[in-house]
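Here's what a typical entry looks like (Preprotein translocase subunit SecE):
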Amino acid sequence: MATSEVQTVSSGADKAKLAAAVLLLIGGFVGFYLLSSKGSLVQWGAFGAGLIAAAVMFGISESGRRLIAFIRDSWREAKKVVWPARNEAIQMTLYVFGFVFVMALFLWLTDKSLEWLFYDVILGWRK
């Protein structure tokens, strides 16, 4: 019997950090709406402060560190991609369009041939 392992937040401190991040984010939203009489600059400042504080709190948690490590590894791998030259990309695009056109023509001819065979020859519905 196969068992599936689910990764969860391991320590109470990590759970507290994630809960604090959520509360800071909610606090930013609440501050945005409660400070509507103070002007838009104060509103957006409260929202931005809550968002930045929540991001920092998430970043220092174990889940945040794993996410940051994943993003770094992904960025490192994306830098290794060898992109084709412009002429090669255009040439491959034209090959794809040509292949699609030939396949569309083949499927259309097959469809019309089977239509003629079944409806005209075998069933005789169209005369």
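The CA atoms of residues 12 and 18 lie 10 Å apart.

More examples are in the samples folder.
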